[in-house]
Structures are given as structure tokens and as C-alpha cells.
User: What shape does this take?
Amino acid sequence: MTTSATAESPLHGIRVIDMTSLGMGPLAAQILGDYGADVIKLEPPTGDVFRHVLPQGTPGMSHAFIQFNRNKRSVSLDLKKPEGLEAARKLLKTADVVLSNVRPSAMKALGLDYESVRAIKPDIIFAAAYGYSERGPYAGRPAADDTIQAMSGVAGLQQLAYGKATLVANVVADKAVGQALVGAVMAALIHKMKTGQGQRIEVPMFETMVAFTMPEHIAGMTFDPPKGGAGYSRVINPERRPYKTKDGWLCVLPYTTPQWQRFFALIGRDDLAKDPVLADPVERSKRFRELYSLIDEVMPQRTTDEWVQALLDADILFGKVNTPDDLMADPHLAALDMFPLVEHPSEGQVRLIGFPIEFTQTPMRLNRLPPTLGQHSREVLAELGYDGDAMDRLQAGGTLVGPEVVS
Assistant: This one.
């Protein structure tokens, strides 16, 4: 991971004010920073809530905050104080993009809703991400990853497949909606480049996750009249799961007709390989439960490594079941430096997550390490025209949190 920002970065010269916390918004802002934007994280004096979960190094520098907040500068202001709100408005006047995951009513109460910000920066792109669209009856409801997994059908699909409603062991709603937020901002920036116009963007978690969940699971309800119910049968088949080998677990997925025929030959079932019914993908799709049960039956006959080699030789899809600890030692990821160690000024050596996407002309870069609370408050306010005495007063009065002033 390189550490030098250059004009070749796609978003070089774009300023993003990140007024978000936890996972969804900070992830989106981090990605925009990875693309070269100047991301200023505007935090309250208590900091982003994610600063305070465990494990953490020094207070306020948790593992979660570190992984969602590289390539940003931190400015900490008390927006409930007039001087803090005034400084925030001056900062917003310099922005191209504002990200918020605060409910609109709270932003309006602060005087930082879209109409208020547009009054001081007419071409602002104001991207708001929160639980439910303001256009529907759920407007204003609080939301989090867990509740949106439930509402958007994720937990219900687990129930259909396995008989019990469970949450995916991943903040999948936060991260999927964060990625959608990035795409929306990029589209708005292109529109602004063409027209000079800013705009307000609403990225509600519920609707975004429904759009994420339903493309394959709307199933028979695609048609009117319906040709069956919702739920893609292959995917909600309880036999669609990792299978126990002699010494571990493996996901195996023969998919095309040639792959199934090679798999049947591999397990000594030439009779199935020659079965004309199983050679027909439409007919075969009616027997997924039976076929997946067959895989389950034969997998304990070999070790994981033996299966891996056999499946590689047969060019059949497979995947070893990795735990997070396994990923840290994966040779492919190690070759790509996917978990680089870097020296952090307050935390010592920390392990970050590398960049999965490759650009030949505009590579993603580590320009800034995850910041301590208010680390860049004085630096940014100086850019806004505040002198040292003014910042000292703000800091002494608790309006500004920043580096300790050395007298």
C-alpha cells in the first residue's frame, strides 16, 4: 500500500464532509478517500460511536474504527454550540459532497439539512443514508444493520432455508448500503461535472437492501399472474451448504451440465453421468435437493486436500470453508498483501485491509492513517481562516477537540 496522494487519483480535488458514524457511512466515505477525495470526518466531542467498541488500542481507537476510517482527517466540533455550528458551516461551504446518516429531523433541527446547506453551497451533493425513505410510512424510524436484515428479508430467507430466522454473521446491510452510497455519489459527481448542478441523494437502508435481496428471490412473482411464490428454490434449499469432508468442510458446486457429468464420473456414478434427465438443466433444477444430498453423502470419503486436488483437476467449482483466522494465513491473500502492517503514531503497528480493486492508471492508495479524535481539527480550521488564538478559545471552551495545545 503506497502512501502518496497524487493528482492522478480519480477524486483528487473533491472534498467530502463525512458526518456519519458506525459502519455504513464511514465505509462509503473511506472508499471515496481511497479514490483520492479529501475526506474530512466531522465528529462530535465524544467521537464516532465505533471508536469505543472492543478490542481497542488506546481509548477511542477501536479495531472497528480503524478499519472503517482510513484516508480521512478528523475534525471534532460541538455543533450544539453556536461557535461549533458556525465553524461547521464554514467547512461545509468548501465541500463538494456531504455524507450524513443522521435522521433528517435531527439534521433539520441543527440547521444542517439539505436546504440549509444548499443555501450556503448551491452546488452541494448532499447524500443522506438512513433507515427508511422519507417518502413512505416508515419515515423517521430508527434502524441498524440487525433490524434491516430482519426487515429486508435476509433473516426470513435464513428461516426458509434452515427453519430458523437468523442474522448473517456480518454487518451485510451496513456494507451493502455503504457500497450503494458510493455508487450514488459517483453518479452525482459525474452529473455535476456535466451540468454544474448539485443535488440531494437519499439512500435508505430498507429499500436498498430489498433491492439487494430480491432479484433472484422474487422468483415466480416476477410474472403476473405469478408462476409460483417468491424465493429462489436452489438457493433456499437446506442442502445448499458446506459439506463435511474426512477432516474439514468444503463448499462444492457443480453447476453446468459438463461439470455435473465430471463430478458424477469423479465419484464413480457413471450411471448418473449418462442419465439424459440429469443432462437437461431444466429437469436437473427440479432435483437440486437430491443432488446436493448426494454431494453430502460422498464428501466424507476423502480429506479436504484430496477433494481440492480432484476438483481442481476436474475443473469443478469449490471453496474451502475459511474462518477469519484462516483468511489471515491464506497464501493467495498474502501474495496480494491483503492485510498490510503499518506503523500508526498512536497505536504502533496495526494491520489494515488492503485494496481489492486494481486500477492500471489510478491505483487506490493509503494516503492517511485512521485519525485520532480531532487530530486534524486545528489544521482544517486554519485552512478556513481561523488563527491560533481563535482556535485556542474554541478548544478551551470545549467547542473544538483537537491536538493538545503546547504553550
Summary: The chain has a mean pLDDT of 95. The first helix runs from residue 24 to 34. The domain at 243-320 is CATH 3.30.1540 (formyl-coa transferase, domain 3). The CA atoms of residues 109 and 369 lie 33 Å apart.
